Amino acid sequence: MAELSTIARPYAEALFASAKGDQASLASWSDLVNELAAVASLEDVRDALTDPRLSNEQRFELFCGLVKSALSDQARNFIELLVQNGRILLLPQIAEQFDLLKNQFEGSAVAQITSAYELSDAQVTELLAGLEKKFGLKLKPSVTIDSSLIGGVRVVVGDQVLDTSVQAQLARMRDTLAA
């Protein structure tokens, strides 16, 4: 997967450089790129776009026809570039890279919070307040539930992991006792 993100990075960086002129443009491009990524992720679309009987022009028209949002000339040019270079199926990775660049630019990040039990809105807000102080970033929560944690939470922000789950504490105890 690292190879795909390496290939996708220059496209995301070029798109970001073009879009970062104003905040509204950045937000609209982010929404559009995520929509394009969702379309490109569909199995039927992936199969159709890799059909060797289709020309690049047919791939371009097919893909643009599947997108619900109105496409600006700049967006159509971007899609055409991806089709011409055989990179249209990299849109999910391009969207991921674009969102990372957007978050860096805005001084924010996504906090992937995994909890053993469902958290109330107040608990998430309280947890985010503490995490924002620790990381010095504005965090956007993405909360999931994993009962295998037994208790506590695991938080991933970028490449940093804070794991206060019971499962992690038991694993540390096991490692200490085995040493």
UniProtKB/TrEMBL annotation:
InterPro entries: ATP_synth_OSCP/delta_N_sf, ATPase_OSCP/dsu. It is found in: Cell membrane; Membrane. GO terms for cellular component: plasma membrane; proton-transporting ATP synthase complex. One of its GO terms (molecular function) is proton-transporting ATP synthase activity, rotational mechanism. Keywords: ATP synthesis, Cell membrane, CF(1), Hydrogen ion transport, Ion transport, Membrane, Transport. It is a peripheral membrane protein. Gene3D superfamilies: N-terminal domain of the delta subunit of the F1F0-ATP synthase. It holds the Pfam family OSCP. Its main location: membrane. NCBIfam families: ATP_synt_delta (TIGR01145), PRK05758.2-2 (NF004402). HAMAP family: ATP_synth_delta_bact. Belongs to the ATPase delta chain family. This protein is part of the stalk that links CF(0) to CF(1). It either transmits conformational changes from CF(0) to CF(1) or is implicated in proton conduction. This is ATP synthase subunit delta. It comes from Neopusillimonas maritima. The lineage of its organism: Bacteria, Pseudomonadati, Pseudomonadota, Betaproteobacteria, Burkholderiales. The gene is atpH.
